């Protein structure tokens, strides 16, 4: 496996992975209006900006892009694994690397968890510190958890 920072040459593949994963997984948890909101949130501009800022990372297995994740300060974002590759430890591997990066400068890590990911994060020691919701333009109520994990003791 190869884990590295994404660069602009990876942009199209990273965007496709994110968008394809949302389309495949999120309709099981959210109505279409919320799925559309997520697709718009993880837009070309936002993904490109994260890559440009050096925040986005990718995981390759046998040269195939299997997952991605980003880190901005103490905040982990945009963790996605190809649907057909989920359950094989790729998400755990990405989170381990991102948490290590956060731990270099912070005692605590935060993330926003969509409904499909809450149980994954809870198993990793995260706990919900806040529930968030937002009504989308299409009238859908989008719900997510703000979660936190202590990386080291004082």
Helix content: 25-40%
Separation, N- and C-terminal Cα atoms: 34 Å
Question: In this structure, how is the largest beta sheet organized?
Answer: 7 strands, mixed
Total beta strand runs: 7
Are there runs of 5+ residues with pLDDT below 50, and where? Answer: none
What oligomeric assembly is this protein in? single chain
- How many helices? The count is 5
What class do helices, strands and sheet pairing give? alpha+beta
Q: Specify the overall morphology.
A: globular
Order of strands in the sheet with the most strands? Answer: 1-2-3-4-5-7-6
Mean pLDDT: 93
Strand content: 25-35%
H/E series? EHHHEEEHEHEE
Walk me through this protein's architecture:
The model has no long low-confidence stretch (mean pLDDT 93). With 154 residues, this protein is α+β, with helices and mostly antiparallel strands. The N and C termini lie far apart (34 Å). Strands 1-2-3-4-5-7-6 form a 7-stranded mixed β-sheet.
